[in-house]
Every structure is written in structure tokens, then in C-alpha cells.
Amino acid sequence: MKVVGVGCGPGMLTEEAIHAIAAAMEIYGSRRAIELARHHICPGARVHELGDYRHLHDLPPKAVLLSTGDPMLAGLGMAGSEVVPGISSLQIAAARLRLPLARFSIVSAHGKDHAGAIAEALAELARGKCVFLLSDPSFDPRELAGALDDDAGTYRIAVCERLGYPDERIPVGTARDPPAACSGLFVVVIWNDQE
Questions:
Q1: What is the edge-to-edge ordering of all strands in the sheet holding 104-108?
Q2: Residue closest to 183 by CA, chosen among 165, 166, 161, 164
Q3: pLDDT by residue for the chain (195 residues), tens digit each?
Q4: Which CATH number covers residue 70?
Q5: Are strands 186-192 and 130-134 parallel, antiparallel or unpaired?
Q6: Domain range for residue 187?
Q7: How far is CA 91 from CA 20, 88, 99, 170, in A?
Q8: 75 vs 47: CA distance, rounded Å
Q9: Per the confidence metrics, is the pTM higher than 0.85?
Q10: Backbone angles phi, psi at 160, to 5 degrees
Q11: Sheet holding 64-67, edge to edge
């Protein structure tokens, strides 16, 4: 199975991804991933919307599995024997905030224990890293801000919503006055403004 990243928003497909999608006759993915790739899917291809990712090993060997963003960022790429990278929300957030990718540590709270993700984010911040936190709709950035120590005044927090879409929104606040998420499609970036 080939896992193909479709980018985190419209118009972010790479040329390699476009070719892989156009050549595929069996395509699987979330509704959002399919919509991002729709214009490049061959008219005769069979397209299957996935809601449950627990049985990926049952997909046909020649299937193409679409992944929003980059398949290796959240780990969906581990399901395939071949991976075509995509433009990730990490890349877009770093570019929009003008923060070098080399400064980032990635923490996932997507479908996982939020308290554990917050503890991991705090440990990475203590190491001087910028934290890119993959969230899910139930994650509250204010919980992360509230967990910071007394030096919280030097931290900046961005809630990067709907990256790459026309209604993209990136409010930036401080740990003492963090922005709130207004949609379920967002990531959180936190960094020390003094470093």
C-alpha cells in the first residue's frame, strides 16, 4: 500500500503526490483528504471514505491511502510500504510564524492523553525548544498555558487554525493570555520569545 500526503490545505499537493493519485485505481482516505485530492483522482478509480483506521492492514496491496498533511508527522505513513510526503501543518505553521523548523519538537495530543502531552510539551520547552502540538478538537490550549511555571510571561502561544484554507486563522497570545481555538482543525505552537 502507498500512503500519499495531500497537504494540510487546498493547493498543497506535491507533483509526486498528484502523479501517485492520478495513477491509483483504489483510493482510501478521510472525507477531508479525498476532497483535497479530488481534482486529481482518475474518473475510473474506486474511492472509499474511511472513518475507522484500525484495519488498514486489510486494504488491498495496490491501494493508495490518502493522508492529510504529511503521513509521517502523525504516523499514518507507518502503515504503508511506500510513502509520498506532503506539505505538513508543521511546515505551514513555522512559515507563517517565521520560526525555524530546526527549533521545533513535535508533541501529539491527537486522540491521546492530553495531560501526558502537556507534560511532554513542558519538558521540551524546558530544553529550549519550540513546541508544535498536534491537537484534537477537545484539546484546550489554555490548559497548556496554565501548566507553565512563573516564567510564563516570556512564552508565546499560537493557535493555528485551518492552515492553508481561505479562512486560515492564527491568533497569537501569551501564556498568561492564550488564544482560544474557534474550530476543531487546529494545532498549537508555543515558544519562548526570549530565545
A1: 104-108, 130-134, 186-192, 155-161, 172-174
A2: 161
A3: 999 999 999 999 999 999 999 999 999 999 999 999 999 999 999 999 998 888 888 899 999 999 999 999 977 888 888 999 999 999 999 999 999 999 999 999 987 789 999 999 999 999 999 999 999 899 999 999 888 876 667 899 999 999 999 999 999 999 889 999 999 999 999 998 876
A4: 3.40.1010.10
A5: antiparallel
A6: 90-192
A7: 22, 5, 10, 14
A8: 22
A9: yes
A10: -100, 105
A11: 46-49, 26-29, 64-67, 2-5, 82-84
Last residue of a domain, one of 87, 122, 155: 87
| Amino acid occupying residue 73 | L
**Residue 73 in grid coordinates:** 508527522
**Residues 68 and 105 occupy one common structural domain:** no
Q: Given 87, 113, 138, which residue is the final one in a domain?
A: 87
Which CATH number fits the domain that encloses residue 95?
Answer: 3.30.950.10
Question: How many domains does the chain divide into?
Answer: 2
